[in-house]
Description:
By secondary structure, the chain is of the alpha+beta class. It has helices at residues 13-22, 25-54, 60-63, and strands spanning 66-69, 77-82, 93-96.
Amino acid sequence: xxxxxxIIRAENLDKVxxxxxxxxxxxxQVALANALNDVGSQAKRAMEQELRSVFDRPTPFxxxxxxxxxxxxxxxxxxxxxxxxxRTSCKVFSVTAA
Length: 98
């Protein structure tokens, strides 16, 4: 079985933390959800690219199978997983706002 690895790097977090400190309340929750969803989308693209590089001629069904379960203002967590299928078990990667 092939190993699938994805690395996500966050930079300039001090600037982000300063901007977040100026925002409060509901706007902060929405901003955090949007940021998490951006990270989820980037992770999805990275996983799709990794699938293309690890497997020999993967079909679009396989490369587009990565699913993002988006964050909301009420649920500050995004999950990234291959398409869920009753025949397979998969590991779900999730990112939660601290």
